[in-house]
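Mods, move this if it's the wrong board.
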Amino acid sequence: MLWLVVGLVLFLGVHSVSIVSPQGRDALARRLGEGAWKGLYTLVSFAGLALIVWGYGLAREAPVLLYTPPAGFRHLAALLLLPVFVLLLAAYLPGRIQRAAKHPMLLSVKLWALAHLLANGTLADVLLFGGFLAWAVADRISVKRRAAAGLQRSAPALPGGAASDAIALVGGLALYAVFVFWAHAWLFGVRPMG
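Not the wrong board. Structure tokens:
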């Protein structure tokens, strides 16, 4: 469990620099240099992600059960996960979905984490998915506050339209199907649909 926690601290910690200090990211980038900051950010992120994967795998060998979700929650989780890949793609494809969701990546993470918390009840699950859910909620609140204070750096508005939305929708649903019916079992040894 220790490695899972260390991985979460590293991964979510480096992704929380702007939450903790709105000017922190820019100050670090200036102090270290933009390239060095991005390199350090990437290195810490990958190290954290590797430790999360390894630590979660180790924790699954001796699970500590905190709660047993009702059987119907697996179906609810599958439903909540349906828009996750659509939103993930929409984060990079300007269109109506992106504009409606405002921050589709954060919404995607929140839905993904909540769905997994509904379907799984071990300590490792609560740490992993609860940690990501708490981070996504905190980051969304932080984004709103930074925008209100004029501290949020915004990407230039790109033209987008029906094609971007179609790619996000069709591609996202295709990724969902591949992941649910094949990739999840291959990667994690768990078949979400039985």
